Structures are given as structure tokens and as C-alpha cells.
Amino acid sequence: MQDRSDPPNPIVIPFPSAPTPPGGGSGRGWKDLRARVLSALVIVPLAALCVWAGGVAYAVMIVLAMVGMASEWGRMFALSARSWRGVLYLIWPLACAAAALGGQWGGAFMVMGAAFVFGPALWAGQVAIGCAGVSLLWLRFMTHPGAGVVLFVVACVALSDTGAYLTGRAIGGPKLAPRISPAKTWSGSCGGLLAAVAGGAVIASVLPDALAGAGVRGAMMGAVMAVAAQAGDLGESALKRARGVKDSGAIIPGHGGLLDRFDGLLVAAPLAALISLGAAAGAAFWYVGLR
């Protein structure tokens, strides 16, 4: 593999869409549903335990996810993990997370900015992954209830993804962005949006210290998280198509790589953290405007 961030002649694979089978789903149908369910049965409890525990367990989970996603991003741009640049590229997220965990939130963004030494393409990956990781650390340690806030964001993103997957394959219909991701449909997008709205309303209502109107506010922010998650999903699909790869990795059966699974969080988590700055000190971000 070439050790540079932007090969001169990247190979682009067209990935033509398969004919839509009766009933409207994608060409893959439901064949990957079993692998997705089995993966979820392992990932969800483990991640939920780390989120609930907070502290070192949560920090380690976020750092490992950042390093793993950085590895996949670098691989898409032909950066060898065995080269000195590849090793340094994987150390960068550690420095970013260390600054955030040390309370130097501004310093974390300075570390992201300094990653421009790798070139624009690889720098973009450090910024996207760094912003998501730092945002998830901020939401857990700097808002209340921290575990509940992270749960809200992750659950809304997961519900959007699951709702879109099930609705799209059950109903089918017009494609959402056929040139970017032929499998995605408008029906799936709407199904994912409705699932996140319902989930957001429920989660915001049952969390400790819920204020009046929490359900309505949760539903609204659930919709915002769903739109952000779907934007992240489409963005990663466009990146993979441009780089000529089908999946960012193969670490998660039924999903592909970490970027394939958590692409929605790359947009949703930073947006949630940004909105939280407009809420009362330490309040959950869906209480934006209340001070």
C-alpha cells in the first residue's frame, strides 16, 4: 500500500444497485438481519454498561472507538498502519482525547487542527472523529444526567438506523440518494425519523429530573438527531463510493467497520454537544433555551 494520503489515481468501484425485488426492499433483502441482531446483542449491553459506569470504562470505550475509526479512515486513503505516519495517525486521537479528559477542551480542538500535517483528506478524518469523540466525552461528563444524555443521542441514532433499515426493506419505494447509496429509500428515511422521534420522547420523559414538556422537547430533538444521523450515514456512503470501497472495515458482522456502524454519531454527537451550550448550565441539551 502506498504511504500517502491522496493517491493520484484512486480506483472507483461503481457498485451498481441490484434490481428491486417484489415488496420493495433492496437487493440484499433481509439476509444480513441475523448478523446485525447478533452483533447488537453483544455491542449494546457492553456499550450501555460503559455509558452507565462512566469514568475510566467510558473513557476507554470512546478512545478505542476513536482509534479504530481513525485506522479505518486512514486505510481508505492508503495509509499503512505499519508506517511511521500510520502509527502517528493512530496516536493523534489519543492526544485529542487526553486533552479533553484533562479538561482542556480547547486544547483538544487544537490537536485536531494540527492534524493538517497529514494532508487535507486525512486531516478531515481526524476532525470528524475527534469532534464526535470529544462531544461524547463532553455530553457524559459535563451535562446532567450525563449517562442519560449519551443514551438519548446513541438511542436516537440507533433507532433512526434501525427504523430506516426495517421500513426501507419492508416498504421500499423511491430511492433517497441512488447515486450515493442505492439501498436507501425515502420510506426508510421517514421510518427512521419516526422511530427516533418516538424514542426521544420516551427517553426524555423517563430520565431523572425531567422537566415539564420533556416529552415534546425530546421528540423534537429526536427528529434533529435522526436528520443528523442520516446526514452522517449519507456522507460516509459518499466517501466510500469516492474511495472505491464497499465497507470501511469488517470488525462488526452485518455492519462492516466502526465507521459504517457509527457514521451517524459523527454528526449527531457534535450537534448535540453544540446545542447543549444553549441550555442551562449542565442541563440536557433538549432543554436548550431554558436558563
UniProtKB/TrEMBL annotation:
Residues 7-22 have a biased composition (Pro residues). It catalyses: a 1,2-diacyl-sn-glycero-3-phosphate + CTP + H(+) = a CDP-1,2-diacyl-sn-glycerol + diphosphate. It is found in: Cell membrane. Keywords: Cell membrane, Lipid biosynthesis, Lipid metabolism, Membrane, Nucleotidyltransferase, Phospholipid biosynthesis, Phospholipid metabolism, Transferase, Transmembrane, Transmembrane helix. The lineage of its organism: Bacteria, Pseudomonadati, Pseudomonadota, Alphaproteobacteria, Acetobacterales. Pathway: Lipid metabolism; Phospholipid metabolism; CDP-diacylglycerol biosynthesis; CDP-diacylglycerol from sn-glycerol 3-phosphate: step 3/3. One of its GO terms (molecular function) is nucleotidyltransferase activity. It comes from the Bacteria. It comes from Novacetimonas hansenii (Komagataeibacter hansenii). PROSITE patterns: CDS. The gene is cdsA. Residues 1-27 are annotated as: Disordered. The chain crosses the membrane at residues 37-67, 87-105, 111-139, 146-166, 186-207, 214-232, 265-288. It is a multi-pass membrane protein. This is Phosphatidate cytidylyltransferase. Belongs to the CDS family. Its EC number is 2.7.7.41. Pfam families: CTP_transf_1.
